[in-house]
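Researcher: Next sequence.
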Amino acid sequence: MAGAYDNRDGKIWMDGKLVEWRDANVHILTHAMHYASSVFEGERCYDGKIFKSRQHSERLIKSGQLIDFEIPYTVDEIEAAKRAALDANGLTDAYVRPVAWRGSGEDMGVAASRNPVHLAVAVWEWGAYYGDAKMKGAKLDIAKWKRPSPECAPSQAKAAGLYMIATMSKHAAEAKGCSDALMFDYRGYVAECTGANLFFVKDGEVHTPKPDAFLNGLTRQTVIEMLTQKGIKVHERHIMPDELEGFEQAWLTGSAAEVTPIAQIGDYNFEVGALAKDIATDYEKLVRA
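Model: Next structure:
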């Protein structure tokens, strides 16, 4: 599948039925378009099985609740919708995108409690998120935008509005020839990238930012479990920017990113070392087990 995302062959599951890809449209006065009242998930299907599928569906519902709406489908119904979309498009290895949003209705202002909530699931073939960086290591810019305080935004919701500064940061990074951008949080601690979590290695131990102002990714949680099972000490803590110079290896994690080594962050260089490679290989085996 190739071409613009609104002009492809295939089916998209939308509000309980499969529709032609090009017909999966919403009204211009959809609330989510104007006020970001939308949540989503990014998932990968390997050999016909979506990795941590049920956890993703549970988080989708929770994200909706965190931005003050109830998705009118159960976890089991969302699971069935994802399977229907995969089957309808004949895909066994794919990216899976459920999205829920406030649509158009009686309200067209900041408040929209009377507007219906919709759900759709699209699936498509998608390769490595960072291209050849999976082998050579990603090059990261350092973003000027910071992750907001949990008092300003619901950081544990995978909500569309929280990605506005991520989009701007990634555009700036790509303009400099980078794959992505590292973002600090509102306190100045190392936080995450625009759509992936961060891990660092020093003296055989792993350090990862504490997810108290950004999303605690499912892939992040999986990798921590993998490291713990290997007997490797993992420190979840606040990391200061000046600590970057002392780390030896680094990698990104996310459903899209999977496990991608980092070669450079700003002026700091990292080895694409044995532990980063091992975790990437072990993760690939796990998701296809």
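Model: The chain has a mean pLDDT of 96. The domain at 11-124 is CATH 3.30.470.10 (D-amino Acid Aminotransferase; Chain A, domain 1).
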